[in-house]
Amino acid sequence: MLSGSNGSSPVHSLVSIGGKKFSLDKSQLGLKSIIGVPHKNDTAIDILGRVLGAVPHDIGMDDPWFEVNAYCLYDTDRWKDLNPKFVLQVYRDVIATGDKKFAQTVWPSVYVAMAYMDQFDKDGDGMIENDGFPDQTYDTWSVSGVSAYSGGLWVAALQAASALAHEVGDKGSEDYFWYKFLKAKDVYQKLWNGSYFNYDNSGSRTSSSIQYARACGLFPIVDEDKARSVLEKVYNYNVLKVKGGKRGAVNGMLPDGRIWWIWHFILQVASLNQCGLKKDLAWNTDDQYRSLTYMRPLAIWAMQWALSRPKVPKQELKPEMEADSLRIHHAGFSKVARLLKLPEDQRSKSLLQIMFDYTCKRMLT
Fold this sequence. Notes:
Blueprint: H1 10-15, E1 16-17, E2 20-21, H2 28-35, H3 43-51, H4 82-97, H5 100-117, E3 130-133, E4 143-145, H6 148-168, H7 171-188, H8 224-239, E5 282-283, E6 289-290, H9 299-308, H10 323-340, H11 351-364
Antiparallel strand pairs: 1-2, 3-4, 5-6
């Protein structure tokens, strides 16, 4: 959905659209002037200048695959977790299936998905920042700056992109994404407060609620002792403190023991019956049954993966990237990132978003 692949390099595949080569140095306005036709409600221009690089939230409802994103509360093109999760899912599937042809086919889309995220690294430290509204899948939680959830996914995705580049034989991209991984990992460690990783670095009361993201098959993004501390904290707060441990795990918990989730449905871990995989059962804190059509029940496969301990390629530490090579690959990556950057007017909040954020904050006080 992000870009096609003809077996050529990611940058070449990106600009070879319909036999016409577009300069990566051109902005959206430059692209419009090149084509030289009326552009009001121009679907092709909208796709090239706005959607390319942004992983959709969903495949759509009215005309699936052609008109994506039935979700409409927020502009998901600005969400910080969809692209990293796409990259991690691709790498997971490559490792699980061993399908090198699939890896070659999707590699250009992975490269573009990573380049799209570059616009959200506002200070150039290698780490993406959230924009102060619910710009991730937890769409009732505002997040500001570096966050444990989106930031952790980004760190893991950088390593996955490096590993996938290795699978397809792109040595330059392998080293470049590894360099970015190490850089972002150092920033992520600053969220550590001694027991777990703060929700974000905003310094607000909710910044110290408990979350954690971890990817499988790659180097841990945090030290093992920190990972154990986080998991113990999550279990003690988000499981044991909810209905005597019989209605966890909840999505979020404040340090004082209050559940941080403004709606009244809290999912328990999906349980499957022995024979059937027929139903995914869940109960909320009011003893009401819920069975969602979300992808959350797929978490059961993460449990199967962890318990079966499949063989995965052993990752190796990489030497520091040479300065000349780093400069060349950074220049190429930055050109793609500039082409994919959202217009400034799309980065501003709508009135609906402002009102929604205000309501959420009032309910937490």
